[in-house]
Design goal:
The protein has 223 residues and is mainly alpha-helical. It contains 11 helices and no strands. Helix 1 (9-30) packs across helix 4 and helix 4 packs parallel to helix 7 (118-127).
Length: 223
């Protein structure tokens, strides 16, 4: 008897993961414009119909590839632990993953091809930076409810922290002007960024102020 209908859920997940693996590999090898769905189907050993049923098209597949990468660090952000520790844990996971050569290559492809394929930029931003910013804004909102931050716009807080975390070094890395950081270098990078975001670089917060009034850490005073 020929069976019809959807495959079991476990097999669906395996097929989807296999398509994502093939998609990432082939995007890195061929770029976006030079890659077609037939190539992905062949590499993943699935039908074209299966790919379209999961992702609707190539831009949807690219977005899903980016989201799977984003989920790996977005899920590391917890509001149930100390604020500084939570931001450092998230920051290390984020910076380590986005500075790997494959991640840098994906962004290079995006920059080079987004004008020809606007959906590519839309999918990347929605499933990468925007997803991360939304999660950070949600984190800051919960920390506000716990009394750690005052009632400022959490989207602004997310943007500021994101900017502190990536810094100019991130852009130099993308241009090939910085080597890929190892784990120890990522630790220093992130600790400095989180410290700056929460406490600033005023002399008082560093314990070297010569003025009479002590300035409270940013995390406690104005955020």
């Amino acid at each position: 008897m020929i069976k019809s209908g959807r495959p079991p859920k476990g097999k669906e997940l395996l097929s989807r993961d296999r398509i994502l693996d093939s998609g990432l590999k082939l995007f890195l090898e061929h770029g976006y414009g030079n890659l077609n769905m037939e190539m992905i189907a062949k590499d993943a050993h699935v039908s074209m119909r299966t790919i379209y049923s999961y992702f609707e098209g190539k831009s949807g597949l690219f977005g899903a590839v980016i989201k799977r990468c984003s989920d790996q660090f977005v899920d590391s952000l917890s509001e149930h632990i100390d604020t500084e520790k939570a931001l450092i844990t998230f920051g290390k996971e984020f910076i380590y993953r986005v500075t790997r050569p494959d991640a840098v290559r994906i962004r290079t492809i995006l920059i080079g091809e987004s004008l020809r394929f606007p959906d590519l930029a839309t999918q990347f931003y929605a499933q990468g930076p925007q997803l991360t910013l939304d999660k950070l804004a949600e984190f800051f909102q919960k920390k506000q409810q716990q009394g750690y931050f005052t009632n400022l716009d959490t989207n602004r807080l997310a943007n500021h922290f994101f900017s502190c975390l990536r810094s100019e070094r991130f852009h130099k890395l993308q241009l090939g002007l910085e080597p890929t950081p190892n784990e120890a270098e990522v630790d220093v990078w992130v600790n400095e960024a989180v410290n700056f975001f929460l406490y600033g670089y005023t002399a008082a917060t560093l314990g070297t102020s010569t003025e009479g009034d002590f300035i409270q850490p940013i995390g406690e005073a104005i955020l």
